[in-house]
Design brief:
There is one protein chain. With 240 residues, the protein is of the alpha/beta class. It contains eight helices and 13 strands. It has a five-stranded parallel sheet with strand order 2-1-3-4-5, with helices on both faces. Helix 4 packs parallel to helix 8, helix 6 packs across helix 7 and helix 6 crosses helix 8. The protein is globular and about 50 Å long. One of its GO terms (biological process) is regulation of DNA-templated transcription.
């Protein structure tokens, strides 16, 4: 299949690896597997996939360490596989640059829906950025939407962003002075609605604020509407 998307499954449980490989292959994906970080790095050295399913609990380097490793030079979408009751694992994964998470045990249909949504969001983001202006300026920042390069105009410093960071920032830029609730943000960055009591969106916004040095109650770029969502309040100019 010419446009077959490649997925790398990283899990130390052989039964889970085989089950996911079979199910994802039947759903039209090209699937490779790794049982630990060493195998994962070896496969990445040959070719990066279109998406990584990464278990948190691994022997040797755990999923957090491997997520951080991938984010050193790649924005490939990552879905973390976490324990059903461990919210902290989910939050840490998002803070390190994961795009989404799914708690074990999960239904194969739910996982496929997450994968399709994330790959669709990634493809849409790639397509829309090609028609964007040369650069976007706001506050003291300059963003190149094609290269996803974010530069502070005073210090000259470039800021690293994950694909999820970039998707969130573009969502705010395209909807300035508009209150965006958690469902709107989750749909745009993950391709799905937020789950009840889910803290992941707040973690994503907090991480973006850190990138923009926009922390604390005196935020000048992204304001919190308590109990409702967030508003991008900075003025925006475009370079053609």
């Amino acid at each position: 299949m010419v446009n077959q998307k490649r997925i790398l499954v990283v899990d130390d449980d052989l039964e889970i690896r085989e089950l996911l490989q079979e199910y994802l292959s039947k759903s039209g994906y090209s699937v490779t597997t790794a049982q630990n970080g060493q195998e994962m790095k070896a496969k990445l050295a040959v070719q990066y996939p279109d998406l990584i399913l990464l278990d948190v609990m691994l022997p040797g380097d755990d999923g957090f360490t491997l997520c951080k490793y991938v984010r050193q030079d790649s924005s490939v979408p990552i879905i973390m596989l976490t324990a059903v009751s461990d919210e902290m694992d989910q939050i840490i994964g998002l803070e390190l640059g994961a795009d989404d998470y799914i708690a074990k045990p999960f239904s194969p249909r739910q996982l496929i829906a997450r994968i399709r949504a994330l790959l669709r969001r990634t493809q849409q983001l790639q397509e829309t950025t090609m028609s964007k202006p040369k650069a976007i300026r706001f506050a003291q920042w300059r963003l190149d939407p094609v290269t996803q390069r974010l530069n502070h105009q005073v210090t000259g410093q470039d800021v690293e962003m994950t694909s999820a960071d970039f998707a969130l920032l573009m969502l705010f830029i395209e909807n300035p002075h508009t209150m965006l609730d958690r469902n709107a943000i989750s749909n745009a960055t993950r391709g799905r609605e937020a789950q009840p009591q889910e803290r992941g969106i707040d973690v994503q916004v907090s991480r973006l604020r850190q990138r923009l040095k926009d922390n604390g109650r005196q935020s000048t770029i992204i304001k919190t509407v308590r109990g409702n969502g967030y508003i991008f309040v900075a003025d925006i100019t475009y370079e053609s």
